[in-house]
Amino acid sequence: MRKIVLSVHVSLDGFMAGVNGEMDWIQFDDELFDFVGEFTDQADAALYGRVTWQMMESYWPKAGDKPNATKHDLHHSKWYNEVEKIVLSKTIHEQKDKTTFIHGDIFNSILDLKNKPGKNILIFGSPSAAHELMIYNLIDEYWVFINPILLGRGIPLFAKIENRIKLQPLMTKDFPCGVTAMHFSIV
Fold first, then answer.
1. CA distances from 169 to 77, 122, 148, 151 (A)
2. Domain extents for the chain?
3. In the beta sheet, which residues pair with residue 99?
């Protein structure tokens, strides 16, 4: 069975994005990019909400073609272009190559995807998609990248949790940019 793995940057006070979806506070460095590249290699699908997918779709397909493309741009663009994209959207009903739009029965649609052979399914940020999957307890692992900032308000990571979910800590790693990565699996 495929695992759904959420990879998300959060502020120390638990926000995935600012009030208006801003993410200009997220810290990165080459070591963090290389680290994330290791677990994108363990996934053959990416799951997004509509807003995040549109943002990703506007940048990543051609990011590796730019003359000033970084090592991260090259790697992630190649990965993005090769993997299946799964988009939770109530408004998009089109078909697109390597992209599946889910707008009906989220629970059973995601279970069907998890039961297909393949590697992990990654969720990068994507607050609406993450919250939907949390409601149904469909996320198997969490990679939480804690940034050294307090936002005060914004889009909280765990806004939709209604019941306790016991987690098993798997690892913690600090990066020179000040970010701490914490990896958990569902018990």
1. 30, 19, 20, 25
2. 4-176
3. 85, 96
As a whole number, mean pLDDT of residues 104-131 equals 93
DSSP string, 119-172: SEEEEES-HHHHHHHHHTT---EEEEEEES---SSSEETTTT--S---EEEEEE
Nearest residue to 86 (alpha-carbon basis) of 56, 48, 122: 48
User: What are the CA-CA distances from residue 21 to residues 125, 126, 144, 163, 187 (Å)?
Assistant: 11, 10, 18, 26, 31
Strand (E) or helix (H) holding 183: strand 180-186
Q: How far apart are CA 143 and CA 158, in angstroms?
A: 13
Residue 164 is predicted with a pLDDT of: 87
Q: Please state the rounded mean pLDDT for residues 81-101.
A: 90
pTM score, whole prediction: 0.93
What is the widest separation between alpha-carbon atoms in the chain?
49
Q: Which two tokens stand for residue 173?
A: 């790693």
Which stretch of DSSP H or E encloses residue 103? none
**Whether CATH 3.40.430.10 fits 4-176:** yes
